[in-house]
Specification:
With 490 residues, the chain is mainly α. The chain has a domain at 37-207. It is globular. It is built from 20 helices and no strands.
Length: 490
Amino acid sequence: MRETLRRLSKMIVGYGAIQWAGPFLSFVFTPIITRILAPSDYGIADYAVSFASMFGTVALLAAPQALMAHFNDRADEAWQKRLTGSALALVLSFGIPLGVALFLFAPQIGEVTFHSQTYTHLFRLVGGTLAFGVCGSVLTTAGQAMLRVRWGMLFSATTIAATVVGNVLFIIVLRLGATGMVLTPVVAGVAVCLVSLWRMRQAIGRPSRALMSTLLRSGVTLFPTTISAWALQVIDRFFLILYVPTEALGYYAIANKVAALLYVAMVPFLNAWTPLALAMQREPNAEHRYASMSRYLAGIALAAALALGLFAPEILLVVARPAYLPATPYVGFLAYVHVFSVFTTMLDISAMADKQFRAISVTMVAGAVTNIILNFIFIPRYGVWGATVATVIGYAVPAIWLYVVLRHRAPLPYPVGKLIAAWFVQFGLLMLNLFLPPLHWTFAIAIKLLLMLLLMLSFVAIGIVTPFEVRHGWLALRRLASARLRPSHS
């Protein structure tokens, strides 16, 4: 297990930042951006970026997921290069026509969306750079599948640099407003595409029609999953706008942004673990490693979700203003979106290893459909709380259903009973905090820290972390601290 963790840590360093850099830096710049942009500009930019993500999802046709699933089918470097080239050719064959269509019909899209052609340039910007985004996505996925850590570090550094420069130059210095907010991720996507093309030029083989066909079949099977995941993230806004004031929409938006800190924390682990787990699926003792890693990832996710729920008021005061404090109670529950995403990712690994792409797609579509139905039922009656509950349940459905489907085929190496028990304890502590009376901040912080300690102790009692692992981790920390404090002898 120690070797597995060592390999995982390298993958996290190499490829983790490329996934969390954008969301994390967006969160960092939020206090500045919200003081520069008018709310209307912020909403227009958010819509344009969401629109771009929809077209990007369609153009990719789940090719990165299909590439990851098939990459280890053959231990042949030349075949893997051809697979990478085939995936790139596949997404460009969809991405380029879609981008051209978006560019040409941008005035009509702007007229339909905003009843004006004022923001036509935003849709043209998205359409003109769509192919760069899908290219970078496929190549970074291929680099992950190859377990090339240094490539990942380069791509991550490119993403971070482009995002920082974009926020500072386009939004803070040039004050481009909504255009600047759209330009920033666009420039980052173009930069990653160009850098990955240059660095991986020797790893891209000649496309093969047979391999493109294989990727297309797997992608079509997985595509409902990706489009459903997109729908789960944004569909509730289309309901909320009909039933709640824009102020409540603002609370919901900022609560989602704070809850997304859990995504920022977990995505490096998940995106590093997925290719590593698939690569080791045939190694001895792989199931034991899967079980241990599931305990660690679930424990981290539940602890982080509770911390976000408990300390939401303090976080909101830092990243926003006191006017946003009514968003506090939603944060802890919206964090479950990312907790269930962790569970689903662990099950997706088992499904991809067994080539159960249809099961992945069906369960994700079921989650999206459930979410839409619950939004229709709950939001008119309960507003933002209705959207919160509907979204969390929508994300829970794929994890639960996929577990049931996979369990019928073969025993799964996950300690489900322990994970459910840990979730019940965490949920109880979150509800307890929600109903505590107002307290002086010193007492409130002390109680929150006590609740976090109780969760940690429950993890040991349940078996999410074993006493041996606690002692081993403590000794490792002591050795690390001693090494740092020991004076060097020159």
